[in-house]
Backbone:
């Protein structure tokens, strides 16, 4: 391959600044979307196991509707599809206040919320039914049983799949570039535009994503050990 | 351990044996496969786009078929097949360097930065950046875009110039023309900037062409060239000779008339200055 590498494009000019800015936007959008996704995920995941049919149906509808349409389509939906439904004044205000960012954040959060929901549901369903029955026998209401017994155990159990889902969310934030959010992948392309050095720019992006994801995975493993209930999971207990 | 070392050595040996095959030049590759793979666009009328009959056509594609291909056929002494692949501004240089395509023939501007990574043919089209706005918009030229939301294409030269010349403009960069136009249509942005000819193309293809205006003087000079892998002089020579031949024989102007003439897809009369520039490349 007659390609001449020139790694200095990554720190000369404005490249460093752009990469940093892209990294910050990626972190910002991912963190906000993660909070939204976890909230929606816990809510709908719990509802899907609730002993009340209409609520189960509602949660099932949310999960199946949002997880079965590609994320890219959701990005376009929230950016191009939703604003025309709003009054003109609200639209103009949104257009002037970073609609791109918020549309991408909501798209990412709602989509991954549906996926988190399945993770939470599997966590809840792995808890023996007797735990719930024992809570009831002690006089807790259904809500109290979920809040004080079922969810605290379920959330501990699902740390590994939830970590996986969180990393997916972080990486999927790159899809936001299709609606002009200047996140990390966008900035690596920007560097490519200015320098015509695609391989160098993509390598920088790859390494940053890799470092981010590995760090998050490490922190999550620590958390898993720190909050493990002794005896619940043998492997963690041993660590 | 010994086994691992042996294995590693075998891998190295296999790679070094494979290397000469990779070092094949573009002309050798085309000769061996009988195929010239071009990277072009699907949504840039009238240069390269999918038309109503679902055919992949355009001015640049015609130039490849009727100017570059004959030159290649002659050089290799056999008929070459032209295959098309979609390439966008962010993907075109990587597509070339990975050997996925042999020639970028779309709407790529020849710039000094890009020349460090790829070689360009002679210029086959000359245009400059302008703005597409809704009729009656207060934006009339690059002087009016401060504080306004301006859509541009990711990876294009226009975005770069706007960022440097009018840092107060709020740039919104989209990966392709349809989404940028959609944002303009709905009001997410106030104007869309691209090379003038592309904006005329977009306007002509839109459902209500009379709703739109292309405004402003050229704020950049955009010479389009066909891009190829760097340092392949013999291939570049064939491409250039095909294009030069078309300019000299008048074939080029025939095709120009077909796409940009009064009855063409996008009427865009060629100015005397542009014609003079194009002909200066063949020494006339």
Residues:
């Amino acid at each position: 391959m007659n390609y001449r590498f020139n790694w200095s494009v990554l720190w000369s000019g404005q490249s460093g600044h752009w990469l940093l800015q892209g990294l910050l936007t990626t972190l910002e959008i991912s963190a906000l979307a993660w909070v939204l996704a976890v909230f929606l995920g816990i809510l709908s995941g719990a509802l899907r196991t609730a002993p009340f049919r209409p609520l189960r149906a509602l949660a099932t509808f949310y999960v199946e509707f949002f997880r079965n349409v590609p994320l890219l389509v959701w990005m376009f939906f929230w950016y191009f599809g939703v604003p025309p439904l709003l009054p003109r004044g609200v639209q103009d205000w949104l257009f002037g206040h970073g609609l791109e960012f918020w549309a991408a954040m909501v798209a990412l959060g709602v989509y991954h919320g549906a996926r988190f929901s399945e993770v939470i549901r599997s966590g809840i369903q792995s808890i023996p039914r007797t735990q719930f029955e024992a809570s009831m026998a002690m006089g807790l209401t259904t809500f109290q049983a979920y809040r004080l017994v079922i969810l605290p155990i379920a959330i501990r159990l699902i740390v590994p799949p939830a970590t996986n889902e969180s990393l997916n969310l972080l990486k999927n934030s790159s899809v936001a570039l299709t609606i002009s959010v200047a996140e990390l992948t966008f900035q690596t392309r920007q560097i490519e535009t200015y320098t015509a050095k695609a391989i160098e720019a993509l390598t920088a992006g790859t390494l940053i994503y890799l470092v981010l994801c590995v760090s998050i995975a490490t922190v999550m493993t620590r958390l898993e050990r720190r909050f493990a209930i002794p005896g619940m999971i043998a492997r963690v207990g041993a660590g | 351990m010994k086994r691992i070392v042996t294995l590693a050595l075998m891998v190295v040996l296999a790679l070094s044996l494979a290397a000469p095959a990779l070092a094949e030049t573009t002309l050798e590759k085309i000769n061996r496969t009988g195929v010239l793979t071009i990277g072009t666009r699907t949504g840039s009328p009238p240069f390269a786009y999918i038309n109503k009959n679902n055919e992949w056509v355009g001015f640049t594609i015609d130039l490849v078929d009727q100017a570059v291909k004959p030159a290649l056929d002659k050089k290799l002494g056999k008929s070459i097949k032209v295959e098309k692949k979609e390439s966008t501004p962010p993907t075109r240089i990587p597509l070339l360097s990975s050997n996925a395509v042999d020639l970028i023939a779309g709407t790529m501007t020849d710039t000094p930065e890009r020349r460090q990574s790829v070689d360009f043919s002679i210029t086959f089209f000359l245009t400059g950046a302008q703005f597409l706005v809704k009729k009656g918009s207060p934006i009339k030229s690059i002087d009016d875009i401060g504080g306004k939301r301006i859509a541009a294409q990711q990876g294009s030269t226009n975005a770069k110039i706007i960022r440097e010349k009018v840092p107060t403009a709020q740039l919104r960069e989209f990966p392709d023309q349809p989404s940028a136009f959609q944002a303009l249509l709905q009001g997410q942005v106030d104007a869309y900037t691209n090379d003038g000819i592309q904006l005329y193309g977009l306007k002509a293809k839109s459902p209500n062409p009379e709703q739109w205006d292309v405004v402003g003087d050229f704020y950049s000079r955009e010479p389009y060239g066909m891009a190829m892998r760097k340092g392949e002089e013999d291939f570049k020579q064939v491409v250039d000779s095909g294009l030069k031949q078309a300019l000299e024989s008048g074939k080029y102007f025939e095709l120009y008339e077909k796409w940009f003439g009064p009855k063409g897809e996008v009427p865009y009369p060629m100015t005397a200055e542009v014609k003079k520039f194009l002909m200066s490349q063949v020494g006339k």
